[in-house]
Amino acid sequence: MLLILFSSALLISTLLGWGKLLENIWGHNLKGLSGKILTGIFSLGIIFTLLSFFTPLNLYVEIPTVLIGLFYFFKNKLYLDFYKLSKKDSVLFVISVVVIAFCGSFYPFILDHFGYYIPTIKWLTEYGLVKGISNLDLILGQMSVWHIFQAGFTNFSDPFFKLNSILLIVYALYIIENKSWIQLIFLPVLLVFVQSPSPDLPVIVFSLIILNEILSGNKHLSFLLALSVFTFAIKPTVIWLPIFILLYSIFISKFDYKKLVFGALVFLLFITKNLWTFGYPVFPIAVFDLGIPWIANPEHLKASSEFALVKMYDEQYTYEEILKFSWFDHIKNWLFLKGIKSIINILFIVSLIGFIVFSIIKRNKTISLICISILIKSVLILLFSAQYRFFIDVFFVIFFVALYKHLKKKNSILFSSLMIVGAVIIFSFPNLLQQFIPSFNVGKFMSQFEKKQLLKPSNYEYNQYKSYKVGDLNFNISKQYPFSFDTPLPAISESYVLDYQKLGIFPQPVDKNDLKKGFIWKKLNATEKKELDKTIEFIKKNYQ
Question: Measured at the alpha carbon of residue 102, what is the angle toward residues 96 and 104, in degrees to the nearest 5?
């Protein structure tokens, strides 16, 4: 906990310095200390993404980044701006910081932390963006901009991957500075994302901040559109946000195509990054084949899309059973899954219907455009894979817009305080959550409070693996564990090895002496097939 506080002080100071420096380029688009920090996050996210094409995001990137940020932080005496907060607001902010650091000190419990977030960051810090990395491990083809940003500070500033804790502290500061008290209600809910570098937290936070800026009359649409595209680059399921800002620019603000240029450049960077790592413009959608040599294997993508459909039904039905569903069965079975996900799905549909009615009653152009944008996103999600983690941001948006400026500061603080107490109890005694909501799978991986967390955040170490070789690829697989979060690179999850055997393919390096040059997939010859079969035999023996 204390190390998270130290890391927060270091990185917030660094980001403030960069925000001040880059306001000279982007302009003063967001107010206050939080505005400078968010400008710093956005700017460094873009800079790190550009750099990662050419170099790993290691100490040679991190040290000058921190030094430059701290130089401008002290040069401009930005620390004095904290004294502008009132005494009451300062107390509220300090309490928020302590609670966030405490909750952030628990063991990570989101499974993607081990199979997606940390492996992605390891590749970025050791190699940067690698061409065709999705051919080695499909999920790595996402390379979220948030993980690129995290990788730039992982070497010494934030070695425990607690950037989400820092972002939530910045969000608390934004709420206090902008007197947007209704957003205090979201803080305790978002504590579930502060143990891992989950991209869900930044897309929710940035979406709410951008919405608040629009509803508060911020006219810097060029920057807000670019920030919304940056948010989309973090997680494309938030596609409604750039659509909304674009529609707002056309139908409400005085349209000027020049306002689109900045956002278009950020979008171009996002597309280029995906083509580099995945071979298609938007992960994981296999459209617009540009004939790139390292493009992902089509059969593997097909198998992945089939699994996504199964995940949509919480793996309660097989793919073959789902194919036999009528249109009515699709709706009924999705709405009435066993467990808590059924409640979430029903609430999602009810919330959408309620928001449509709300927007009709209000007859407000801005709210109508938000509703249209949310509906576009919802239809796309329902068509591809309606998993609750893909539409969770919709709940926050609807709640915020419906109650915007209706909750007073006193009530917001009261509700938020009660929810924070509940969140702290749940984190400290997760068995209560496991007992009362057994179908909430995430709760099963939460662990009890330990005294050592007060100094150092809890972190898992496994580091047990075996090395194998197929063709020109020497690789490592975690021993008796499905994920490779601390396995030396190049590492492959054992499930993908089994998939490759079924498909008769295997990833190969373009240059076995330089993994930075990327990976392609290759049909197995007789020798390679024997090597792969032998590898799988060893994997199975590890479990005996």
Answer: 100
Which neighbouring-strand residues pair with 520? 508
Query: Residue for token digits 């509906």?
Result: 375
Q: Which residues of 218-231 are buried (b: 16+ CB within 10 A; e: fewer)?
A: eebbbbbbbbbbbb
What is the Cβ-side half-sphere exposure of residue 223, based on CA atoms within 13 angstroms? 23
Which residue in the block uniquely carries the two structure tokens 């919709």?
A: 394
- Among 213, 113, 102, 189, residue whose Cα is nearest residue 393: 189
10 HSE (CA, 13 A, CB side): 19
- Joined tokens for residue 443: 């709760």
Residue type, 122: K
Residue 32 CA neighbour count, 13 Å, CB half: 16
Q: Strand, coil or helix: what is 162? A: coil
Q: Which residues of 248-286 are buried (b: 16+ CB within 10 A; e: fewer)?
A: bbeeeeeeeeebbebbeebbebbeebbbbbbbbbbbbeb
Across the chain, how many H-helices and E-strands are there?
23, 4
Q: What is the DSSP letter of 498?
A: H
pTM of the model: 0.93
Of the chain, the end-to-end C-alpha distance in Å amounts to 39
Sign of the torsion formed by the C-alpha atoms of 412, 417, 422 and 428: positive
User: What tokens appear for 439 in the block?
Assistant: 């179908």
| Average pLDDT of every residue of the chain | 90
CB atoms within 10 A of CB 364: 14
Q: What is the pLDDT of residues 158-203, one digit of tens each?
A: 999 999 999 999 999 999 999 999 999 999 999 999 999 999 999 9
What residue type is 9 in one-letter code? Answer: A
Q: What is the DSSP letter of 291?
A: -
> Own/partner pairs for 477-481, CB < 8 Å, 24+ apart?
477/535, 477/539, 479/542, 480/542, 480/543
Q: Say if residues 481 and 462 touch (Cβ distance below 8 Å).
A: yes
Cβ neighbours for 351, distance < 8 A, ≥ 6 positions apart? 394, 395, 398
